[in-house]
Structure formats: structure tokens, C-alpha cells
């Protein structure tokens, strides 16, 4: 099975995340770039599926040069090779542009299964997997907490508000995973060393047959008109429990008409 | 006034509160038309939609619509956009409705904005990003704006609409039937409101200490008619089911009142609750970052404070 796992480099949540004042896109220099957490679960799931069914795991990322760190991380976990879609023309693409660029690349490199994390910690739109399924015209198996593959068919448990849906489809397909699905492995020393020798193919917009008029900030379908740091919340009242903390909290609730 | 399509969120035939919020919001932008997708429509549902201003109700209530993942609903909306030329499409910012919005955006070549917390004139959308650290105004620049609005961001207001029903005939394409729902498994959640929709959320974290002790959190939630949430520390420890996790890798909630008990308030958690209107924190550690967000905080042991609070709430009802 030819599995492509899409990963994204995101600003570390633990550092300060900012937008750039010039073009209102993510300031990638302000924060450390790390692999998006849910992408680690996607890589793990891809590796588990490969271990069970054979095949190959290819990492695909779209991002600037420094996103190669994220590729190495996925390769160190055990992925076989990588494709890095990198081109200045892609800078500032919104979800529609990104999904288009990734879909074109996926068509070019081929796949039986595409695996993604269900959401990134920076944009948090949660739409990319659905958009890829739409663009690639393959079944959408998203928000999976369990994935089972049997030769040509695939079944997942899709997390819902009430529990989960069992969903069936045939391959090829797009799967997105939630963190409940597995426990991502840590790269071993051997894995880290091996990752340095694994092939990483860099593709530009033209290589992937991406129409440049469909990607990039200027061609996005939406724009950030303005932004500002959120005003800090007004300092609250903090009391020490002297045996009446519950009563005092109830008083506060009453003052706000919650009780 | 221009027509605004509102995709109805419903469960077991009941219209969910977020839909009433969307109808309220849509009335400020134009004339709301509700879109009912899937089975379960009833006169009750019609009454509810009309009460909150739906002038029209487009009905596509065949089982086909909901028996396949997401794609049929995107097809339905795409068909309606092409037939009715609305000024905008509003959906709830739930996991599934955002996916519908995403697929619709591609079908109709239009921009989509997700997790919107307010809409101003000219469809300028307010979003809160980076865990609540940055406020953004954004807008769609191509096509028919598709906007996914976060539950609890608009106070509901009734204003009667005609509620004129119009049956929509949809043929779900073969392509949209790729992922078939073969079983729906309902997991126990009791009578509590749904986490992302609840006006009040009571969450427990590491300080709760065990799965059994979550009953303390549940009792407080029940006294307030609230939903129960949990921090990642609590769900990772297996004390509470994963689907109740609030935070960056879990649910984002924006309730009127959020009570955090035994939660330190790491950025990963704050990303999921920072837009709550009022925040109460109960934690043993006076240095816990959650107190920086709290409108009211108690430095103390939740095992003492929470049961006392529950008793007081019950008493004062």
C-alpha cells in the first residue's frame, strides 16, 4: 500500500505566535517551528498500517525551506521518503489554495491512502482533509479514532458528538486522525541517523503542475483585513479558601446571575 | 433583502441552539432561509425555525443525505447556492459543518471562514486565533461567502419568520457516496448539554485525581445544567472520555461561564476555552496560569471547594 502522510510545520504553541504586520500572514520567524502535534499521530498511523499491510510511507509537506526539519522528524519516526513542496509562489495560500496545491502534488506522486492530522494547531480550520477528498474525488474518512484496512476496503470509526460512526469506503481514500487513535513513537537514535540518508524530493509549483494563479496570498479566496493582540482580560478576584471558598464562589455566581 | 442560507444542526429531530444563533445572526445580514438536510424533520422543528426568523425552509430530508460522510450535504448546499444565489451561507463551526463548508467552498469556488465569533456589516468576520491571543478581522474575497460560526457567539433572539417550506430534490451523486456510514454508535453522555453548545461548562483536570472523583465535577455541572469538560491531563490519564477534552487537540468551547477545577491552564488548554465570557478557576496552586484568566478564583482544594459550591448552588435554586 502506497501511503502518503501529509505533515505541517507549525509555530510552537509554547512560544509567542504572531502575524506579520506587512502581509498579515503567520510570522514564521517569531516562533520555533515544530511538527504539528496531530501530524505525529498521522505519521504513526501510516507506519502502523505499513507494518500491518506492507508498502511504503511517503511524507508530504508544503512549506518554506525550514519545514525540512519537520520532514526529518517524520522520516526519523520511520517514514521511507519525502516530498517537499516548496515555492515562494505558495506563500500565504489559504485552505482552498493549499488543498489545491497538495491535491495536484498527490495526483503527481500517486497514493492508495492519504493520512493527515485532523487539524493544525496554528490555523485550526479542520477543513483540509475534507477539501483534499473533494479535490481528489476519493472517499472522505475524517476524524478517525480507529482505522482498519482489508485489501481494497477501509473502515474507520469517525468521532462524532454522540460517540462515533463506523464508516466504510474503498481505496484510494483520505483519512484524518484524532489523537485518540494511537501513541506516536519517539524517533530512535538509529531512526534519526537513517533519516539523514532518506530521499527528500523538492518540488516547485511548476514541477507539481500547480497553476500559480490558484495559490499564494494574492490569489486566496479570503483575506485578513486587520488584526490586533487580544486585550488582556481584566484582573479577577482571587480568594484563598478559608473553608468558605465554595460559598464565595456561589456568591460570585449569584452576582453574575448564574444562580 | 438578500437571502442567507443557514444549514440547520439537528439531533434526533431537534433543532440545536447554535442554529437559532445562526438565524439570529442571519437576520442582521439579510433574510434567513433554513436548510434542513437529512431525516427527522417535524412540525416542531418547523415551528422552532420559523420562531427564530426562517422565512423559508429548504427541505432535503432523505436518508441518503446523512448516510454518507459530509459530501452529500455539500452537494445540497452547492445546488441551493446555484439555484437561489444567496448572499452568504452560514454553518455552525462544528467539526462536521466545517468540513461541509470546506467541500462547498471548492464546489462553488468561494472563500470560507471558520471559527468566526462575530459578523459585522459587509460580512467582515471576527476570529480569535492563537489560543485567543490575537483577534482578526477577515473577509471572503471570492464567490459567495461561507462562514462557520462558533456556537455561543451570538445571543439568540426570536423574531417570527414565515417558515415557508420548499422541498428540494437532490440526487446524491455516486462520487458523494464514497464513504458510507454503516453504524452510529451512541456513547453514554447522560442528559447533559453538548459540550460545544453548553452555556455553562465545568471542567476537571489533573487536580481531580481519579476517574471516580470526576463525580465531583459532574455533580457541580448537573446543579448548574452544565456540560462536563476535561483537560488533556485528565483524558490522557483515562479519567474521563477523550471526546470531552477541552483544548488545542480537543474541543473549543465559548460558553457564558467556564469553571476550571484542578486545571493549571497550560496554553494547550487555554486555546480551547479562552473566549469564555466568564471564567472561574479553582486550584491548589496560587501560581497556576489559569488564575491569569479567571474573573473569580479560589486558591484551594477542589475536593473541598467544589462540593461546597454544588451544595450552595442547589440551596439557592
From TrEMBL, chain A:
The family annotation for this protein states: Belongs to the ETF beta-subunit/FixA family.
Q: Which SMART domains match?
A: ETF
Q: What is this protein called?
A: Electron transfer flavoprotein subunit beta
Question: Where in the numbering of this chain does the Electron transfer flavoprotein alpha/beta-subunit N-terminal domain appear?
Answer: 23-212
Q: Which Gene Ontology cellular component annotation is one that this UniProt entry carries?
A: cytosol
Question: What are the alphabetically sorted keywords of the record?
Answer: Electron transport, Transport
Q: Please tell me whether the keyword Cell division is annotated for this protein.
A: no
Question: What is this protein's function?
Answer: The electron transfer flavoprotein serves as a specific electron acceptor for other dehydrogenases. It transfers the electrons to the main respiratory chain via ETF-ubiquinone oxidoreductase (ETF dehydrogenase).
Could you name the domain of life of the organism this protein comes from?
Bacteria
Cofactors that this protein relies on: FAD
**Family matches, as Gene3D superfamilies:** HUPs
- One of the Pfam families matching this protein, by short name: ETF
Q: Which GO terms describe its molecular function?
A: electron transfer activity
Q: Which residues form a coiled coil?
A: none
SUPFAM superfamilies the UniProt entry points to: Adenine nucleotide alpha hydrolases-like (SSF52402)
Q: How does it assemble?
A: Heterodimer of an alpha and a beta subunit.
TrEMBL record, chain B:
How the cofactor binds, per note? Answer: Binds 1 FAD per dimer.
Task: List ligand-binding residues for FAD.
Answer: 206, 231-232, 245-249, 262-269, 283
InterPro entries, per the entry: DHS-like_NAD/FAD-binding_dom, ETF_a/b_N, ETF_a/FixB, ETF_alpha_N, ETF_asu_C, ETF_asu_C_CS, Rossmann-like_a/b/a_fold
Entry-linked SUPFAM superfamilies? Adenine nucleotide alpha hydrolases-like (SSF52402), DHS-like NAD/FAD-binding domain (SSF52467)
UniProt cross-references to Gene3D superfamilies, sorted A to Z: HUPs (3.40.50.620), TPP-binding domain (3.40.50.1220)
What SMART domains does the annotation carry? ETF
Provide the coiled-coil residue spans.
Answer: none
Q: Which residues form the Electron transfer flavoprotein alpha/beta-subunit N-terminal domain?
A: 4-185
Question: What CDD domains does the record tag this protein with?
Answer: ETF_alpha (cd01715)
Sorted alphabetically, the keyword list is: Electron transport, FAD, Flavoprotein, Transport
| Keyword Manganese part of the UniProt annotation | no
A Gene Ontology biological process term:
fatty acid beta-oxidation using acyl-CoA dehydrogenase
The cofactor required is: FAD
- For this protein, what is any one GO molecular function term? flavin adenine dinucleotide binding
PROSITE patterns, per database record: ETF_ALPHA (PS00696)
In the record, the note on similarity to other proteins reads: Belongs to the ETF alpha-subunit/FixB family.
Its job: The electron transfer flavoprotein serves as a specific electron acceptor for other dehydrogenases. It transfers the electrons to the main respiratory chain via ETF-ubiquinone oxidoreductase (ETF dehydrogenase).
Oligomeric form and interacting partners: Heterodimer of an alpha and a beta subunit.
What is the designated name of this protein?
Electron transfer flavoprotein subunit alpha
* Organism name: Streptosporangium minutum
